[in-house]
Design goal:
- The complex is a heterodimer of chains A (112) and B (413).
- Chain A is α+β, with helices and mostly antiparallel strands and 112 residues long.
- Chain A contains 2 helices and 4 strands, in the order βαββαβ.
- Chain A is 20% helix and 43% strand.
- In chain A, helix 1 (13-22) packs antiparallel against helix 2.
- Chain B has a single domain (2-400), classed as Ammonium transporter AmtB like domains (Ammonium transporter fold, Orthogonal Bundle).
- In chain B, 71% of the residues lie in helices and 2% in strands.
- Chain B has 14 helices and 4 strands.
- In chain B, a hairpin with a 3-residue loop joins strand 1 (77-78) and strand 2 (82-83).
- In chain B, helix 2 (47-74) packs parallel to helix 4 (122-145).
- In chain B, 56% of the residues are buried.
- The chains are: A alpha+beta (112), B mainly alpha (413).
């Protein structure tokens, strides 16, 4: 089983979510994060100009069976990209075990 | 025939009292406006503290002004300097005057809280409010509005209080901001750091409410509605509104030109600057004069805010010193220029302008000195600031034991 972590633009979340559902990836968690990256925002507050590299993004945490790793990553890249600096990143790591809380079962069946 | 004349006189008296009461009620609501502006322009971790200060300076002011302040301000004159003090004002048939003057006094007191926000000890602030409303404000107010004061004698014009109310608050705010010192992290390596307010909507709503309240502040100062006064009151409503609009528009253009984008917080300050500026001359200038005064104050407030923050490095989170102190002074002086009866632009020469200057400087000096003495005493006794640890954690939890927004996760800064 693999964990696919994706940091994407908040404005692209709807596209990414729909695209993932379409290829059969239906379970994931997400939350809003602030992060540092290459994109900068110019601010002016009461006469003081400052630029901040603190940017707002959405973080998706998706755990999938091994045979879904490729399609998940490709789908996210296609749906979340705009071509501009700041589109985000995807990280893939190994997951040791997965359980369904309701039944107590474990294994790749619980991710279907 | 005499019966009818008596009845008309009685009705006129009732109209006058009614207008004073209602106008005072509008001014009362400015307390809500100040609370919204100050909390909107500061961080969420200090919101309860802002609310407490604004709530309590109203309450302390109401009580102190009734207890002694009103008598000091309006009592029988002693030496053109002070009214005869008496306790717990209770004169029959005068309660509408006590009411109207109380809400003006509370306005002067609450101006300070914005300038010293986010790092001042709450107990210190309460004492500051008490002395402002019981002593400092009433004495300078006596000089101008009681009728026998030395500034009245010179012909000083301050119809609704650009100097008596606003610059009194503004100069006290200046002294307090200097002696209390800037917020932690505000000035780093000699440069000013932006500490954004947490809610510009509160700020905007607050300014709308203050603007509304000013329609009691200025027109109410006619202290009458009957007879010819009705038209005067209407004129004052218009000069007030025009000055506010002009102030906001000029601040808008100035920030748009200077920073590339129009700045909401400065534009809001611009509207207030226009309102403060017109307060002295709202009954003495033409509509064109009101626009001019508002426009000048709208530019001045932006310049002043950036100068005080970036050059003088005095931390004033809401711009109270610039809006109320600087523009209060400018608006008062400009009566000597735009006053239709004796102003410089109307062939009156420099005399009125000179008198205005004497009032601005005289009351300015009074407030600077008395507030300085008071704050030094407080500094050496109970202290002015919260501890560094408390300031960083936020005054809501450290001074008041609760969060303003317990359901929300706050960004730490």
């Amino acid at each position: 089983m693999k964990k696919v972590e994706a940091i994407i633009r908040k404005s692209k979340f709807s596209d990414v979510k729909n695209a993932l559902h379409e290829v059969g990836v239906n379970f994931f968690s997400y939350w809003d994060v602030t992060g540092q990256g290459n994109e900068k925002e110019g601010h002016v507050y009461r006469g003081i100009s400052y630029s901040t590299s603190d940017i707002q993004r959405r973080y998706l945490d998706i755990v999938v069976n091994d045979d879904f790793e490729d399609i998940t990553v490709k789908t996210i890249i296609a749906a979340a990209g705009t071509g501009e600096v700041g589109d985000g990143k995807i990280f893939v790591s190994e997951v040791k075990e997965a359980y369904r809380i309701r039944t107590g079962n474990k294994g790749s069946e619980t991710l279907k | 025939m005499e019966e009818i004349t008596n009845q008309i006189t009685e009705i006129n008296g009732v109209l006058d009292i009614m207008w004073i009461l209602i106008a005072g009620i509008f001014v009362f609501f400015m307390q809500a406006g100040f609370t919204l502006v100050e909390s909107g322009f500061t961080r969420a971790k200090n919101t309860i503290n802002i609310v407490m200060k604004n709530l309590m300076d109203l309450c302390i002011g109401s009580l102190a002004f009734w207890a002694i302040g009103y008598a000091i301000m309006y009592g029988d004159d002693i030496g053109k300097f002070i009214g005869t003090p008496s306790l717990f004002y209770n004169e029959a048939g005068e309660m509408h005057n006590l009411w109207f003057q109380t809400v003006f006094c509370a306005t002067a007191a609450t101006i300070i809280s914005g300038a010293v926000a986010e790092r001042t000890k709450f107990s210190t602030y309460l004492i500051l409010s008490l002395v402002m409303t019981a002593v400092i404000y009433p004495i300078s107010g006596h000089w101008v509005w009681q009728g026998d004061g030395w500034l009245t004698e010179l012909g000083f014009i301050d119809f609704a209080g650009s100097t008596v109310v606003h610059s009194v608050g503004g100069w006290a705010a200046l002294v307090a901001a200097i002696l209390i010192g800037p917020r932690i992290g505000k000035y780093v390596k000699g440069k000013s750091v932006a500490i954004p307010g947490h809610n510009m909507m509160y700020g905007a709503l607050g300014v709308f409410i203050l603007w509304l309240g000013w329609f009691g502040f200025n027109p109410g100062s006619e202290l009458a509605m009957s007879g010819e006064s009705a038209n005067h009151v209407a004129n004052i409503v218009i000069t007030t509104n025009l000055a506010a609009a002009a102030g906001a528009v000029m601040a808008l253009f100035y920030t748009w030109f200077k920073y590339g984008k129009p700045d909401i917080s400065m534009t809001l300050n611009g509207a207030l600057a226009g309102l403060v500026g017109i307060t002295a001359g709202c009954a003495a200038v033409s509509n064109g004069g009101a626009v001019a005064i508002g426009a000048i104050c709208g530019i001045a407030v932006v310049a002043s805010i950036t100068f005080i923050d970036q050059k003088l490095r005095i931390d004033d989170p809401v711009g109270a010193i610039s809006v109320h102190g600087v523009c209060g002074a400018i608006g008062t002086l400009l009566v000597g220029v735009f006053g239709t009866d004796g102003g410089l632009f109307y062939g009156g020469g420099f005399h009125q302008l000179g008198v205005q200057a004497i009032g601005v400087v005289g009351i300015g000096a009074w407030v600077l000195v008395t507030s300085f003495i008071l704050l030094i005493i407080l500094k050496k006794t109970i202290g002015l600031r919260v501890s560094e640890k408390d300031e960083i954690e936020g005054l809501d939890i450290t001074e008041h034991g609760m969060n303003a927004y317990p359901d929300f996760r706050l960004n730490e800064h």
